[in-house]
Structures are given as structure tokens and as C-alpha cells.
Amino acid sequence: MKLHQFKAIYITQLTLYNPESNREKELKDLLISKIYNLRTMTLPDLAHTLYRIIEHENVSESFKDLCKFMLEDIKKIDELYSQLN
């Protein structure tokens, strides 16, 4: 998966996601902003944010699952860029 594909997929999924709480709405907005401005140099920051949401935030399982899918795809992007260098 390429970075522009990741951005298109997850901005769309987050936009369509219906938050179950005010905190989920805040985190959704935060993630959309981070993904919109995402570059390969900022992937680690997004990965850390996703990890913190999964491990420490009181959000629904569906939101955590979405974050887990994003983390898995970040690993794929990282592997792709590692092969190129």
C-alpha cells in the first residue's frame, strides 16, 4: 500500500465513522488532521497516537479496531519504504 492510498482509505473511513462518544469525536478529528498532513517522516507520530488510543483511551471496540487496521497498514507502508532504501 502506498501512502496516498492509505490517506484516501482512512480519511474516508474516519469521515464515515459515527462516533459513539464526545471523546471518539475528538480523536476522530485529530486522526483526520494527522492523516491529511501525513508524510513518511510523520508516520511514527501517527503510529504512536494510534497505539495510545488503542491502549489508553476509553473508546468503543469498533474504533479501536479501526485504529488497529491503520497500524497494520502503517507497517506495510514502512516495509515498502524499507525495501526501497
Shape: globular
Beginning-to-end CA distance, first to last residue: 16 Å
What is the count of structural domains? Answer: 1
- Provide the residue-averaged pLDDT: 94
Overall number of strands: 0
Number of helices: 4
Instruction: Indicate the radius of gyration in whole angstroms.
Output: 13 Å
- SSE arrangement, N to C: HHHH
Q: What can be said about the biggest beta sheet? A: none
- Percent of residues in beta strands: under 5%
Structural class, from secondary structure content? mainly alpha
Spans where pLDDT lies below 50 across 5 or more residues: none
The helical percent reads over 70%
What does this protein look like?
Helix 1 packs antiparallel against helix 2, helix 2 packs antiparallel against helix 3 and helix 3 runs antiparallel to helix 4. With 85 residues, the protein is an all-alpha fold. It is globular, with a radius of gyration of 13 Å. The protein starts with a helix and ends with a helix. It has one domain. Helix content is 79%, strand content 0%. The protein contains 4 helices and no strands.
What's the gist of this structure?
The chain is mainly α. The protein has helices spanning 3-16, 22-36, 43-56, 61-84.
